[in-house]
Amino acid sequence: MPRKLIPKHTPALGSGDFMPYLLEPLRRRRRHPALSDVWRERLPDRALFGTPSGRHALWLYLEAANLPAGTEVPVAAYNYYVVVRLLAQKGLRPVFVDVDRETLGMDPADLRRKVSPATGLVVVTHMYGNPADITEIGAICDEHRVPLFEDCAHAVGTTVAGRHVGRFGEGALFSFGPLKSVTAFGGGMLAVAPSAAGHVRPGPPSQVSWLTRRRTFFCMLMVLLMTPPLYRWGLHPLTRVASRLADRGISRFRDIIAPSTNDAWYRFSPDSYPPFRPFVPDMLRRQLERLEDRVDRRRAVMGEVKRRLADIPAIEFLHEDKHGRANGSYFGVYVPDPEAFRRHMLDHGVEITPHPFYDCSQLAQFGDYADHCANAAHAASHFVRLPSYSSLRAADVDRIVAATTAYFAAGRGGTPRPPAVTRASARAA
Ligand SMILES: *Cc1c(COP(=O)(O)O)cnc(C)c1O
Q1: How large is the average pLDDT for residues 169-176?
Q2: Which protein residue's CA is at the shortest distance from atom 14 of ligand 1?
Q3: What is the pLDDT of residues 400-414, one digit of tens each?
Q4: pLDDT at position 208, please?
Q5: 238 Cα: distance to centroid of ligand 1 (angstroms)
Q6: Angle 291-308/280-289 helices, nearest 10 degrees?
Q7: Helix H or strand E segment including 429
Q8: What pLDDT score does 230 carry?
């Protein structure tokens, strides 16, 4: 591997983005802006609640919605398994809906087949920051009089018809975890329509304990280690250590470094996270001020890489902007053999993520709700994430393109593997 490694993701923070908060315990309390001030332009008609994480936002919404046990909740099969776990843990019944192969968002045609009189909520994810077909999905929800919830964990800066996502349903979650494109070392947000706000009961803030402080600190450290010069010697080797520890039953670190790795025993526990920190709105404000620049830059990277790889038939691209304007935060493509491609790219100093998410309809832990979703299965076995962060330089983009071109020029277009992801094969990957 070359000395320099291009990480799959970097938060692109400057020291001014976090130093004030790092030093905060040593100084006089500063006044922080309210979340609603920070988001006013983008989410003007929503009531906002700061939460310890994105999953807490979903949990808070589910508590407010108070749906009867067994209520069916259509959710995209290609998904972050934690979202599905929370639904099941609340006593609801996840109903897996296939995704559109071009966007990885919920396929409205399959949703139409799967809504039933028992449906009580639809959860749609703007996967990878690509807008889902929110107009069509919203229309189906209206027809059946069920509320819509948007998972905007990847989608800060994503718009549909010029409006920021998170305003198209009754509620939406946002996540500011260490791996998200806008980060506050943790934290999340629930955005709800004013009509629903009265039902949301945030509960007393939990105490900042030594344990939860440690988590914030670890997230902060991780974000710092993700900056490109440190990454090769910092987070990259740590990832291996974390995954070995997880194999021995200590999954605490992997849950932070590689949170999307399937953990069949995961159960949500509200108190395991630090409470929403007062500095979060301020930290977000700084990043949101330059959001449009960052989005433009990431989209330019994505556009350039797609253009330069367009002649390789074995690569299949998404149509990120099919239903709006993607934020470019997660740039991915389909390749025949993600694992072999990952090894090749790593040898050329580019880190890619071979299996970023799962086809949850095939995970053993959701066996009670199992289904066959062809596009989700295809995505789970062929989709890879390429770097697209805003601080990538022209030489980095050249390297990504050259390494990819070399891989496929060597005749490794290959025949696709059969689209089956079992727990064992996903673990091995
Ligand atoms: C990260 C993420 C969440 C939840 O965010 P946390 O802050 O980690 O709880 C939800 N959905 C998707 C798709 C995510 O990637």
Answers
A1: 98
A2: 153
A3: 999 999 999 987 765
A4: 67
A5: 21
A6: 60
A7: none
A8: 80
